[in-house]
Amino acid sequence: MSELNYWDVFPQSIRFSKSDEMQVIPLSIRGVERSVEFESSNPPVAEVYEDGVLATGLEVGNAMIMVRDVAHPASLRYLQVEVRDPSWFANHPDYVLDLGESVTLLGSVIDALSTNAVSGVLVTIRRNSGGSIVAQQITDSRGEYEVELYEGVYIYEATAQNYISSTGLISVAASGSIGQNIVMSPELNGQVARIVLQWGVNPRDLDSHLRGPRPGGGSFHVSYSDDYVEDCGELDVDDTSSYGPETITMLRLVAGTYLYSVHDYTNRNSSTSTGLANSNATVKLFFHDGQELTFNVPNQPGTLWNVFEIDGATGAITPLNEMEFESNI
Ligand SMILES: [Ca+2]
Q1: What is the 308 CA–ligand 1 centroid distance (Å)?
Q2: Half-sphere exposure of 51 toward its Cβ, with a 13 Å CA cutoff?
Q3: What is the pTM of this model?
Q4: SS3 of residue 89 by DSSP
Q5: What is the sign of the dihedral through the CA atoms of 141, 142, 148 and 149?
Q6: Ligand 1: distance of its center to the CA of 309 in Å?
Q7: Per-residue pLDDT tens for 202-222?
Q8: 8 A C-beta contact, residue 268 and residue 206
Q9: In three state form, how does the secondary structure of 242-266 look?
């Protein structure tokens, strides 16, 4: 089960010369694998077959191709197609089909608990889940890897001895920067779960909060202001200067409801802020039974993101993904 949601269609714009023969180009859906359907605003100019192959070139004109996620119809991507008279290309000899830039991506892998660099990690990058490998490298002594990729969204898998394997998304921009490191969690050693929060450059300070039942009665609340509660949980890192990670380790499960939330401390006094929604925050839950779940912050205003609940009696995990405004939690 995964809540990863980023995806895109490539290329995003295509310009063809009109010809007497149909021109075809396979479109690539990058990011998390999904089932999509295509709709053309102008089928005589451009159409997409069910297998994702664009057919165009017979008529001059413009078409917008809408790419819709079948399971989430509100999730849309667009591809712009232009078919020009051959004389246009004669006047623009430098024009080449834009498949995005090939960029060098320099990434780092860090330990969720110590935030130290992790060397010897095998990083495998695919265009989509289950797709073929486009790059693979082992991190060096500085925990870094360097690969050559086209712009777009990719899936990574990182594996190393004594760490829980991790998968997620990396977004490759023209600048090559990715903003977020790959964070690896050391294997659980009798603990119940590890919860890793990461985000982008803004806001500077997000906080992780875990609340739940205390063995023997009462409740606990682990956060930056109480970072260790015996037999309950421990916050390993309180990051106050962008990116994270902040990591909470759950120590025991007893009957009752556990709630994990992310609070936007920087914007806590706002009642309109979209800072948290725009933070690119992700939460990874590594559960003792081997489940690894990723949650992405909802695109809604709010200063408190209630991420998930765990039923302590059954171990069932329930995604919440609710946003609200709270100055203090
Ligand atoms: Ca913090």
Answers
A1: 19
A2: 5
A3: 0.69
A4: helix
A5: positive
A6: 21
A7: 999 999 999 999 999 999 999
A8: no
A9: CCCCEEEEECCCCCCEEEEEEEECC
